[in-house]
Amino acid sequence: MAYIELCKYEDMDPEIQERAKPILEKTGKLGEIFELLALDKDLYFSTDAMVQNFLLKETLLPYATKERIALLVSKANSCTMCVDVHKNIAKMLGMSQEQVEETL
Question: What are the structural domain ranges in the chain?
Answer without folding.
Answer: 12-103
